[in-house]
Write a structure and sequence with these properties.
This protein is an alpha+beta fold and about 120 residues long. It is built from 4 helices and 4 strands, in the order E-H-H-H-E-E-H-E.
Length: about 120
């Protein structure tokens, strides 16, 4: 029998792993504009009225974007989920696809593995 000490919750949670870069808000807004996001959504998010922009940008298959509001100022995390690794793709190719995407869009942040937990 295991005894857990500390905080125990009955809420459900799910976690996912990304190979991604953390980018500043203005850098994300520029990326969103390049990827064809509606300008009114970019302005709405700049003004703090919405956090819907990450759902509206068109990313390559397997890429994810999420906002991290845990720190001030908030920032975006953009990259690929580990689950998007293809059967014939090596780990190096997986990582390089993220690096290539970031470079192609002028993002200088270096990607790293990030574990995120979502509480439901």
């Amino acid at each position: 029998m295991k005894i857990r000490k500390g905080f125990v919750s009955n809420s459900s949670s799910s976690s996912f792993c990304l190979y991604a870069a953390c980018i500043e808000l203005e850098e994300f807004y520029a990326l969103a504009e390049k990827l064809g996001a509606p300008v009114h959504l970019i302005e709405s998010e700049r003004e703090g009225e919405s956090l819907e922009l990450s759902y509206e940008i068109k990313l390559p298959k397997g890429f994810e974007c999420t906002v991290d509001c845990g720190e001030e100022p908030s920032y975006y995390i953009i990259g690929r989920t580990y689950e998007s690794l293809k059967d014939d793709e090596t780990g190096a190719e997986f990582k390089q696809s993220v690096v290539n995407f970031l470079k192609e869009h002028g993002i200088e942040s270096k990607p790293k593995f990030i574990l995120r937990e979502i509480y439901i």
